[in-house]
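Quick question, first post here. What does this chain look like in 3D?
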Amino acid sequence: RFAESIRPICLPVDETLQARVNAMNVFHVTGWGKTEVTSFSDVPLETIVQTRNKQECQNSYRRQIVATQLCAGQTGRDSCTGDSGGPLSYVELMNHRQRFVEFGVVSFGSRNCGDGSPGVYTKVDSYIPWIAYKLAT
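> Answer (accepted):
Ran it through. Tokens below.
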């Protein structure tokens, strides 16, 4: 069921779009997770995050970050507990209208949200064939 804050989102199914997105480094992250006062939000919150390099991310979590993941966020700007499954998106102009395109899904991050450790996101374009298959069956 759609509402003001719950809407369909586009997927990066076109290879040209996927390549352009892979070159981007600034995204929106949205969710109903915990806020700076450690309570869950009654309304969806949004922030802008920048991607972080893979090595820096691996050092933060002492685990391998694989090709289907990316890291983003900086001090004071991050996803948090309760945001998992939410979109990492950007705005694309399509047919003269702004559309949100989902590039990632919130996966995990630091327990101390916004502490400067990057959040880890699953890259949607890595799963487009699987998503298309599931939608067709």
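Residues 109 and 119 are 4 Å apart (CA to CA).
The first strand starts at residue 26 and ends at 31.
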